[in-house]
């Protein structure tokens, strides 16, 4: 199999726990705490790290990226941006500046989200997202833009600062609804999925390949999941049980509802996965849905010993997954464990290489 991109997750959105649902001041999102996660991932040799974004949760992804970029040696940053929160030309300038600071190691996670305090129906929201992606790509490609859409109406030259490569950094994007799939096929470079059973993953990839092909495009595919790896399967399953041992249902529901995206098709699919799981919370072998009891988004974890976790990742690779974005609780601890037990056995490297010396 070809090398796969292995990324970790920086808990910018107040999503770090020893026990899910039990707040720990030491694990709250802060510059220092999230910086330490990123530095650990960089030290361990992960290829990329997702900086998530949520208006009501945690700290700002772009500001954080600017603060941490000069400290990094080799890791890329996958910076999440929520469409519409910034005027696109200004967003392009900020992202180009970050790419310069990272010497070409910027990747971008596009999120189609309601704006804080506003609600927009799914179809027009995704139409706005595609317009933003198109204008952003044009500007970051270094080209003038003359765009007159339903949501974006702008004619101007690109920002003076450009990316290291002179091209737009790769756009990672996910979503399961019909409008989301169409936006991904039309405008994304990497289509991201949340956890699902293998047959569903295979079906989604086939659907997305067909949609992109109709537009004369190709997509690459990423998979976002939690991971719990221990020396034995029994220890891994015990760690999973311990993680939710202090979680009650009302607390979990309150946490899930905090997200602006809690009603999306992707979130609904994660709920279906939990409902279909066995009594121990496993939707299929080594895929545990218990973590989704206190999370609105990515709601399942790969659980097992090193060989089982590696085999599961290889099974996704065989379907066409080329990028993994992994996380665990607490994020620094699980980052170390995965780096020790699994990462050395994966043939991995960045999905896109643009860095300059």
Give a structural overview.
There is one protein chain. This protein has 357 residues and is of the alpha/beta class. The protein has a single domain (5-226, 317-345), classed as Luciferase-like domain (TIM Barrel, Alpha-Beta Barrel), CATH 3.20.20.30. It is built from eleven helices and 13 strands. It has helices at residues 31-44, 61-68, 88-101, 122-140, 178-187, 198-214, 233-243, 249-257, 265-276, 306-319, 331-341, and strands at 5-9, 48-51, 76-82, 106-111, 145-148, 153-156, 171-174, 190-193, 220-229, 282-284, 287-288, 301-304, 323-327. The strands form two sheets. Strands 1-2-3-4-7-8-9-13 form an eight-stranded parallel barrel, surrounded by eight helices. Strands 5-6 form a two-stranded antiparallel sheet. Strand 1 (5-9), helix 1 and strand 2 (48-51) form a beta-alpha-beta unit. The longest helix is centred in the middle third of the chain and has 19 residues, at 122-140. The protein is globular. The chain starts with a strand and ends in a 16-residue tail after the last helix. The mean pLDDT is 93.
Helix and strand layout, with pairings?
Blueprint: E1 5-9, H1 31-44, E2 48-51, H2 61-68, E3 76-82, H3 88-101, E4 106-111, H4 122-140, E5 145-148, E6 153-156, E7 171-174, H5 178-187, E8 190-193, H6 198-214, E9 220-229, H7 233-243, H8 249-257, H9 265-276, E10 282-284, E11 287-288, E12 301-304, H10 306-319, E13 323-327, H11 331-341
Parallel strand pairs: 1-2, 1-13, 2-3, 3-4, 4-7, 7-8, 8-9, 9-12, 9-13
Antiparallel strand pairs: 5-6, 10-11, 11-12
């Amino acid at each position: 199999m070809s090398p796969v991109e292995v990324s970790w997750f920086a808990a910018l959105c107040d999503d770090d726990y020893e026990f899910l649902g039990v707040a720990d001041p030491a694990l709250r999102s802060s510059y220092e705490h999230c910086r330490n996660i990123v530095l650990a991932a960089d030290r361990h040799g992960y290829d990329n790290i997702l900086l998530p974004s949520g208006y009501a949760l945690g700290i700002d992804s772009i500001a954080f990226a600017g603060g941490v970029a000069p400290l990094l040696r080799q890791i890329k940053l996958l910076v999440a941006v929520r469409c519409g929160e910034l005027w696109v030309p200004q967003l392009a300038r900020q992202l180009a500046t970050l790419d310069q600071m990272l010497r070409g190691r910027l990747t971008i996670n596009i999120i189609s989200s309601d704006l804080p305090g506003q609600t927009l129906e799914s179809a027009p929201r995704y139409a706005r997202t595609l317009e933003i992606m198109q204008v952003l790509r044009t500007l970051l490609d270094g080209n003038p833009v003359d765009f007159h859409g339903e949501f974006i109406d702008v004619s101007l030259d690109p920002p003076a600062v450009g990316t290291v490569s002179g091209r737009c950094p790769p756009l990672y994007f996910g979503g399961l609804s019909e409008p989301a799939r169409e936006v991904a096929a039309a405008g994304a470079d990497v289509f991201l999925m949340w956890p699902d059973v293998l047959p569903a993953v295979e079906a989604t990839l086939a659907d997305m390949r067909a949609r992109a092909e109709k537009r004369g495009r190709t997509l690459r595919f990423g998979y976002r999941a939690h991971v719990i790896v221990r020396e034995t399967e029994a220890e891994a399953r015990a760690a999973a049980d311990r993680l939710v041992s202090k979680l009650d249902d009302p607390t979990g529901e309150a946490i899930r509802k905090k997200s602006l995206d809690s009603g999306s098709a992707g979130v609904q699919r994660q709920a279906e996965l939990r409902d279909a799981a066995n009594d121990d919370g496993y939707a299929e072998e080594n895929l545990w849905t218990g973590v989704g009891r206190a999370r609105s988004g990515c709601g399942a974890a790969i659980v097992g010993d090193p060989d089982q976790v590696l085999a599961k990742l290889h099974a996704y690779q065989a379907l066409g997954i080329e990028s993994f974005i992994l996380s665990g609780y607490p994020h620094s601890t699980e980052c170390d464990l995965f780096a020790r037990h699994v990462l050395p056995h994966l043939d991995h490297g960045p999905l896109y290489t643009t860095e300059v010396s």
